Amino acid sequence: MNKPADMASFWLYPAPLEERERGVSEAERLLKAFAAHEDEEKAFLKDYRAILEHCKHPMAAYLLNLIIEDEERHQTVVHSMAATLRGAINWTHPADAIEGSTTLTQEQARELHRLTRKYIDEEKEGIKKYKKLIKSCSGYYRGLFGLLLKVMIHDSEKHVMILEFLRDELADA
Q: Is 127 within 8 Å of 156 (Cβ atoms)?
């Protein structure tokens, strides 16, 4: 632990002493954290589904289903990150990993890069439209429509982040 990089890693991500003594790497600790998070997501899903099963209120059931869909997606994302990290640690390439060599031709990469720029602009325009709609219908159904539009804005902002990441990755292709 004499190298500056090791010291920075120690102070930024201090492992419990027993793990440092056993030689548990930062990647292995992260993998354990992903596994714990996967278990938490499974528990959340089970609880939400149990609530939904007994829910007789259509609006509440609709909103709970939105949450369940998000939790399922979170579980998939964390599982994919864990599989990717596990593959790197074990020098394997799991089918559910999210990294790997590209099979895009240069032409395909350029076209996908062009489309990401286009859809970034479209998502941003959609956000502006949703914000205008919120003003028009925020009082409808005790604020439900306003809430749903805010959720859609949040999703569109997330799409912009994903597309910008993809655009930047493809810029080098």
A: yes
Please state at what angle helix 26-53 crosses helix 58-90, rounded to 10 degrees. Answer: 160
- Residue pair 18/32 in contact (Cβ under 8 Å)? The answer is no
What is the amino acid identity at position 9? S
Closest CA to 120 of 77, 70, 84, 162: 162
131: three-class secondary structure by DSSP: helix
Residue 20's pLDDT is what? 57
Sorting pLDDT into bands at 50, 70 and 90, what band is 7? very low
pLDDT tens track for 23-41: 788 889 999 999 999 999 9
Q: How far apart are CA 166 and CA 154, in angstroms?
A: 19
Distance of CA 88 to the CA centre of its chain: 20
Which helix (H) or strand (E) covers residue 77, if one does? helix 58-90
Name residues whose C-beta falls within 8 Å of residue 119's C-beta, 6 or more positions apart in sequence: 159, 163
pTM of the complete model: 0.80
pLDDT tens for 125-159 read: 999 999 999 999 978 999 999 999 999 999 999 99
Chain centroid to CA 55? 28
Q: How many CB atoms lie within 10 A of CB 123?
A: 19
Residues 1 and 10: beta-carbon distance below 8 Å: yes
